[in-house]
Write a structure and sequence with these properties.
With about 300 residues, this protein is mostly beta strands. The chain is built from no helices and 31 strands. The strands form nine sheets. Strands 20, 21, 22, 23 and 24 form a five-stranded antiparallel sheet that branches.
């Protein structure tokens, strides 16, 4: 595939969100910033929540809802920005935040669940009812690590629940009919599928999640988007970096190579939903390409 570099100089970009005006919202983890990249490639600051904004999605009220991991230590060498996921020295907590796209106001919605801290919220997707699923990758400290899980919340800040516990989960997405939830387990190189049985409820017996695909070697997984016909497009890291397009029915996948070992996120948009924007995190780029099939139109846009 041919790629166009839309914007560069971003500070570990992730979580692209296509907007109806043709711009793309991205989060910049290292900068603690939410940015809008216009169609001409100009970057504008939307908000500065601090910490480590990691993923984003538009809610039913038109606001941007972000997962904030609390901040990651990043190291730069020869123009390449790396992180191993270690918490910054002044790390406070992970959280879910609401960003008013008009004013840039940031409101913290959740930082605990049943008295337990959120460690490193990572990715987020809204369902058709207006609630949202999100993942927590956990948090690495110099001499310890905390696990996260899969959670469900509502955007008014009144209710959040832990659905899957003690798993280091990265990307999350819903099938076109909303009946299946997909999640990527980065270090175990697994793409999992869960049955959605009710709002905020998954079928978890006898074992949480079915394996859709298992990746070899050091082919770790990041965040994802889904095509209109149900294929899962997930960021593949380290070995053979790119976007892996997975058929959930068979588990077979095709890898679309990209020029960054941290090819982290993808989103779809455009009039025919075949425009694809991809974040290349270590080199700080947002690139654009034409996808072979249209992406899924998400529940809410702005």
């Amino acid at each position: 595939m041919k790629f166009e570099t839309v914007c560069q100089g971003l500070r570990f970009p992730e979580g692209p969100v296509w907007m109806l005006d043709g711009s793309v919202i991205v989060v910049e983890i290292e900068a603690g910033r939410v940015s809008r990249v216009r169609s001409d490639g100009i970057r504008e600051t939307v908000a500065t929540p601090g910490g480590g904004p990691n993923g984003g999605a538009i809610g039913p009220d038109g606001a941007l809802y972000i997962t904030n991991n609390g901040g990651l230590v990043c190291t730069e060498a020869d123009g390449i920005l790396f992180t191993d996921g270690t918490a910054i020295p002044d790390y406070e907590t992970g959280r879910i935040e609401r960003v008013d796209l008009r004013t840039g106001k940031v409101e913290r919605l959740y930082d605990t669940v049943d008295g337990r801290q959120l460690w490193g919220p990572n990715d987020i997707v809204f369902d058709g009812s207006g609630g949202f699923w999100f993942t927590d990758l956990g948090k690495r400290f110099p001499h310890s690590r905390r696990d996260g899980g899969i959670f469900y919340g509502v955007p008014d800040g009144s209710s959040i629940r832990r659905v899957v516990d003690d798993v280091q989960v990265n990307g999350i997405a819903l099938s076109p009919d909303g009946k299946r939830l997909y999640a990527s387990i980065t270090d175990e190189r697994l793409l999992l599928e869960f049955d959605v049985v009710d709002r905020g409820e998954l079928a978890l017996s006898p074992v949480p999640g079915r394996v859709v695909a298992s990746f070899p070697g050091r082919q770790m997984l990041d965040s994802m988007a889904v095509t209109a016909d149900g294929h899962i497009c997930v960021g593949a890291l380290f070995e053979n970096p790119g976007i892996a397009e997975v058929d959930p029915a068979s588990g077979e996948y095709a890898l679309h190579p990209c020029p960054d070992i941290y090819t982290t996120n993808i989103c779809f948009g455009g009039n025919d939903m075949r425009d694809a924007w991809i974040t290349l995190s270590t080199t700080g780029r947002l690139i654009k390409t034409r996808w072979g099939r249209p992406g899924l139109r998400l529940a809410f846009y702005a």
